[in-house]
Amino acid sequence: MKAIKILSACLLLLPFVSCTQKANDKGDAVTEKKIETLLSKMTLEEKLGQMNQVSSYGNIEDMSGLIRKGEVGSVLNEVDPVRINALQRVAMEESRLGIPLLMARDVVHGFKTIFPIPLGQAASFDPQVVEDGARVAAIEASSVGIRWTFAPMIDVARDPRWGRIAEGCGEDTYLTSVMGAAMIKGFQGDSLSNPTSIAACPKHFVGYGAAEGGRDYNSTYIPERRLRNVYLPPFEAAAKAGAATFMTSFNDNDGIPSTGNKFILKDVLRGEWGFDGMVVTDWASASEMISHGFAADPKEAAMKAVNAGVDMEMVSYTFVKELPALIKEGKVKEATINEAVRSILRVKYRLGLFDNSYVGEKKAEILYAPAHLAAAKQAAIESAILLKNDNEVLPLQSSVKTVAVVGPMANAPYEQLGTWAFDGEKSQSVTPLNAIKDLVGDKVQVIYEPGLTYSRDKNKEGVVKAAASAARADVILAFVGEEAILSGEAHSLADLNLQGAQTELIRALAKTGKPVVMIVMAGRPLTIGEEAEFSSAVLYAFHPGTMGGPALADLLWGKSVPSGKTPVTFPKMVGQVPIYYAHNNTGRPATRNEVLLDDIAVEAGQTSLGCTSFYLDAGFDPLYPFGYGLSYTTFKYSNVKLSSASLKKEDILTVTFDLENTGKYEGTEVAQLYVQDKVGSVTRPVKELKRFARVTLKPGEKKNVSFELPISELAFWNIDRMKTVELGDFALWVAPDSQTGEEMFFKVTD
Ligand code: NOJ
Predict the structure, then answer these.
(1) How far apart are CA 552 and CA 541, in angstroms?
(2) Cβ contacts of 360 within 8 Å, gap of 6 or more
(3) Which of 219, 286, 284, 288 shows the shortest CA–CA distance to 251?
């Protein structure tokens, strides 16, 4: 339905664009022939030019020289359609071979209409809403001439200190795989050659999310088995979904920077997965191999990157400068260059750039189209997670006549857009404050006293003033969190508590005795245990984007019902990190009955604490587990049945269950299926998400739901370094989150 609305907007507002898309982009013989014909005409300099991506700079004439000589294959960060056309004209009409430029931009969670940050979108557990968001982003970005986005970011991330956790889909391999593929589908549409399609670029290949200590750009140490079981599957799913390009990552894994890692780029990506698109470096990550100490100079950096399987270099110019000599010396083969250029040209042909090189220059009406704003609002509604709701304080009832709107995020149009919202405009954001006023009109009095002007504000005077005003309200809505700049690239944090005087603000508000509803807008899970204690209800909205305000207002007043679930484990305190549900068991798993710090007797004996795997000061469990989220209504799971208790490797297991809405509101539950391989040739995670479904039910309604799970999806990289389903016993849970549900069993036999 939503998809249809977006499509019809596209038909209405872009009549010159055909929205019927061709089904198949795969390299056909005609395209391959065109590539060979063109390649045979190219000089070495022109070939190397295709492998060179530059960032837009200066005026058109400044950039034209290189383009005219055929020394640029792609330009990033140019979003003015007039300039894009001017640059394209130089490439098409003034360069010898007229090869079009590929115009690129980080369109990560929207172009102009900004959607919730990807971590928020992942909380929706709704691939359709994610696909719709990417489609809107593609329609808007392509309307100014962008045909390549550096997204989706599908780095599995299990450390919220890492600022880039905001850009991905959280800690889970399966959820990230599904959401990444949905984004690719949205960006690329049914055919890349449709002018509203943009090429996707899954990034960062690979392992970047495991940066040691959550410090950005840091080294990773991921053994091959973990790489294959946890970090590679989302990229394999992306390749299968037809992603046109891939980007290497900044990190070195076990000493090898990704940009120089032949094993991942050639053996796995091209060899095992049959990828025939193009691989680009991350920003200067070829020359950064010098800082890593993996290359002595730009020449060695270029050699290692190209020989490892990189096709295009982002901004560091080592390819154009160093490859001629490397080829002469035989250190890089011309055949390798030809392969790289083929991959680049293939993407350009698939995008239809040779035939459809220019874009309309009139300000496109499609930007911020009503259907786009509606899709962004829906995504923000589905991204919000209700973490607590004591005494059913939410949704707010008509008996609430006065609300206090407090906190630095209540009216922060820029901050609600989140990280990587380059082209989003704060002037278009609808803030919670404005949306609430709009929604309640004169039925509810709104007292606005922010208390703090930004999330790091430490001014206690404002806190006192806000608490005094808030005391006059029936309910206090406290919008806290972190500014957009505190997450994203190079924005790691060692402390995950609320910044500035926000904790004092929540404490002071709680002291009024009025119910406090805390709404958190942030780029990552924050350690909000204390503030949650002080609050009657907690709604976690991440950075919700342009339409965050209306989405939250609807949720607070019950026009919509929360359905989001945590896409990542929320730690109690930062010392528990990394913390994730799909861990392996130790030989001494926690019992959850352990003696904690305050219960330990003075001079207690060495072994009196139980000798299990937990923290004396934090226990074992997180603040909120993966997959967790409440609703205004309640759901009952029952009657879980397996199609068989004994299956063969080639079988499909069908799991059916009844789901009933036992509360007062219509609501949507994200039902989850987890599996554990009880005994393996190597230790296996205690649980792994294998399926999920959003099920909408009216009060009292009951539905029979079914999951189909091919047993082949239980395969993992085993002790013999083979992806295999091992025979034996499995446990299974159908559950509302990763920590509950009744354990059931089945066997896989010969
Ligand atoms: C560096 C970031 O790591 C990457 O994600 C981004 O796509 C490029 N810069 C281009 O902006």
Answers:
(1) 8
(2) 16, 81, 143
(3) 219
| Sign of the four-CA dihedral 630, 632, 634, 640 | negative
Cα separation of 378 and 343, whole Å? 37
Q: What is the dihedral of CA 9, 182, 162, 311, to 10 degrees?
A: -100
282 catalytic? Reply is yes
- Cα(423)–Cα(651) distance, integer angstroms: 48
Are 375 and 550 spatial neighbours (Cβ–Cβ below 8 Å)? no
For residue 167, which atom of ligand 1 is closest to its CA? 5
CB 281 within 8 A of CB 305: yes
d(CA 383, CA 542): 8
Is the pLDDT at 498 greater than 60, yes or no? yes
Torsion angle, alpha carbons of 104, 108, 112, 114, to 10: 180
Q: Which one, of 460, 400, 464, 488, lies nearest residue 436 by Cα?
A: 400
Amino acid at 169: C
Q: pLDDT digits over 646-697, tens only?
A: 999 999 999 999 999 999 999 999 999 999 999 999 999 999 999 999 999 9
Helix (H) / strand (E) element for 729: namely strand 728-735
**Is the distance from CB of 397 to CB of 519 less than 8 angstroms?**
no
Distance CA 513, CA 471 (A): 8
Residue 452 Cα, ligand 1 centroid: separation in angstroms?
32
- DSSP states of 22-57 as a string? -S--S--HHHHHHHHHHHHH--HHHHHHHTEEEE--
What residues contact 725, with CB distance under 8 A and at least 6 apart?
Answer: 649, 711, 712, 714, 715, 748
Count the alpha carbons within 13 Å of 525 in the hemisphere toward its beta carbon: 33
Residue 528: other Cβ atoms inside 10 A: 29
Whole-number pLDDT of residue 3: 39
Query: Which of 53, 102, 148, 150 has the most ligand 1 atoms within 8 A of CB, as the residue to mutate?
Result: 150
- Alpha-carbon distance of 44 to 324, in angstroms, equals 8
Which stretches of 425-568 are assigned E, i.e. beta strand? 445-448, 475-481, 516-521, 537-540
What mean pLDDT comes out for the span 411-440? Answer: 98
Q: Helix, strand or coil for residue 76?
A: strand
- CA distance to 149, 199, 287, per residue, from 241 (Å): 16, 12, 31
Closest alpha carbon to 138 in 198, 224, 223: 198
Q: For residue 165, how far is its CA from the centre of ligand 1 (angstroms)?
A: 14
Give residue 27's pLDDT. Answer: 58
Distance spanning both ends of the chain, measured CA to CA: 44
Encoded tokens for 78 = 């140019």
**Please, which pLDDT band fits residue 21 given cuts at 50, 70 and 90?**
very low
Identify the residues whose C-beta falls under 6 Å from ligand 1. Answer: 106, 150, 203, 282-283, 489
- The answer to whether 209 touches 240, Cβ cutoff 8 Å, is no
Average pLDDT over residues 290-297: 98
Structure tokens at 26: 């795969």
Instruction: Please pick, among 282, 311, 677, 737, the residue that the annotation labels catalytic.
Output: 282
**CA 595 / ligand 1 centre spacing (Å):** 46
Q: Report the range of poorest mean pLDDT among 80-94, 313-327, 406-420, 593-607.
A: 593-607
Residue 424 has pLDDT above 80, yes or no: yes
